[in-house]
Amino acid sequence: MGRLSWLFGGNDHQLAADRYAGRESASDRAARRGRASRSKTFGKPDRTSRDAARRGQAWDDADRQRRSGTSWWRGQG
Prior knowledge:
This protein has helices at residues 5-8, 12-19, 26-40, 44-68. By secondary structure, the chain is mainly alpha-helical. It has one domain. The relative contact order is 0.05.
């Protein structure tokens, strides 16, 4: 009955537990990968806010130059 036991049904959980014993489930693997990716991005908010501040400053500098026709660091205008 060992090879044909899947035909009789009714004990799917036990069959799965026996067949996949020692293997990581898909949901466990997804949770582990999610935790790993979140831990890698731990320092990213600082870098992201810094980059956004730099982009904002660059936009402000470009806008100031457009309005006055000169660069602010040259002291003209």
